[in-house]
Design a protein that fits this description.
This protein has about 375 residues and is mainly β. It contains 2 helices and 26 strands. One of its GO terms (biological process) is hormone-mediated signaling pathway.
């Protein structure tokens, strides 16, 4: 049965290189559809990695065949649920046209970054105290639903798995503590023990990014999860891995900060803005306004540590001619809201290249 973890994996010194984020651009979405029910828990104990991969392929073929005989599919009902909640009944009964992805993936690397839906399996090779992670990212207007099918992690051997609402890297998190409605501690759901049957544990992220951190010292132990991407009607925090385009941040009248963070050097232009009082968009700091837009850059995930390059406020119904160009590895647009106004900003995000360096507004480390 479930046993709570005693320490957060983010405190164990896990520091994968920031260069790992570059592989996000090479990941492709897998779109196999199925209306069959979720597979029963898989027993990984006596299976080699090769056997597990073969089984995964067989399961995928079986579910794909079953999809031709059924036409109704259910997806998690997010209405009324907490932003990142554990609930045996979260896989609801509401009808939907969203097709459940049946692709099976065997996790073979310590750090894996995926934009895919489907079922992920991991079996430990006996890596001692090594802490690994499965970084998940979806489209900007999606949240990530994680259903835990199977868990075999020895609590007494310092085994632990943590499902994180957001990303954690080098001790920094996205969204930052200041930009997330939930407390920092409540965003880490830790567990260990043995769970092979019964109702699934289901977790729903607040934004389009989530993380599975795990330390499984005992060879042969592991876990199996299903990942789904579902529509988010009110996205606030957005992680952009490799996609240029226009993005909108909106507080819907709430006292929350919303951020868009890119994992690349970027050129940002405001297309539309309505924040707070309709004043000059260049008098934010002088007037001590509480509602405004910041554009900045950093080398880490924490937007509260970014170097603010530009700040805008007020009302601007027409696209701004000015572009803010930042070379820091990560670029952030942050909508700060007092809760007194319905704030909204739409920005155009483009990748910055070598030719943009001479005209850059800010370059980290220079």
């Amino acid at each position: 049965m479930w046993s709570p973890g005693t320490s957060s994996l983010c405190t164990l010194g896990w520091k994968p290189s920031l260069a790992l984020m570059a592989i996000l651009g090479f990941l492709m979405m897998a779109e196999l559809t199925s209306s069959s029910p979720a597979h029963p828990a898989l027993n990984l104990e006596n299976m080699s990695s090769a056997e597990l991969e073969e089984l995964a392929n067989q399961l995928a073929a079986q579910e794909l065949e079953a999809s031709s005989h059924q036409s109704t599919q259910h997806q998690p009902d997010l209405a009324g649920s907490s932003l990142f909640s554990a609930s045996a009944g979260s896989l609801g009964t509401s009808s939907s046209s969203h097709a459940l992805n049946t692709a099976h993936t065997v996790i073979s690397e310590c750090v894996t970054i995926s934009m895919d839906e489907g079922v992920f399996h991991y079996k430990s090779r006996g890596t001692g105290d090594q802490v690994c992670g499965l970084y998940l990212v979806a489209d900007p207007d999606k949240t990530i639903v994680i259903s835990l099918h199977y868990l075999d992690v020895d609590c007494h051997r310092r085994g632990l798995i943590s499902i994180v609402d957001g990303w954690e890297l080098n001790g920094e998190v996205f969204p930052s503590v200041e930009d997330h409605e939930k407390s920092f501690a409540s965003r880490f759901h830790e567990m260990c023990g043995l769970e092979m049957t019964g109702s699934e544990q289901t977790f729903v992220s607040s934004q389009n990014a989530a993380l599975i951190q795990y330390r499984i010292p005992v060879s042969g132990q592991g876990f199996s999860i299903r990942v789904q991407h579902v529509h988010n009607p009110r996205p606030c925090n957005i992680l952009v891995q490799d996609t240029e385009g226009a993005y909108t941040l909106e507080n819907y009248g709430r006292h929350v900060n919303c951020t868009l963070t890119t994992l690349f050097d970027a050129k940002v232009r405001i297309l539309y803005m309505s924040t707070g009082q309709h004043v000059s968009p260049t008098q934010c700091g002088k007037m001590g306004l509480e509602d405004y837009v910041q554009i900045g850059g950093s080398s880490g995930l924490d937007s509260s540590k970014m170097q603010v390059v530009d700040e805008f406020c007020g009302h601007s119904p027409m696209p701004n001619l000015r572009r803010t160009t930042i070379f820091c590895g990560m670029t952030t647009v942050r909508l700060v809201s007092s809760g007194k106004y319905h704030n909204k900003v739409t920005v155009e995000v483009r990748k910055a290249d070598f030719d943009d360096i001479p005209s850059a507004n800010y370059v980290c480390g220079v």
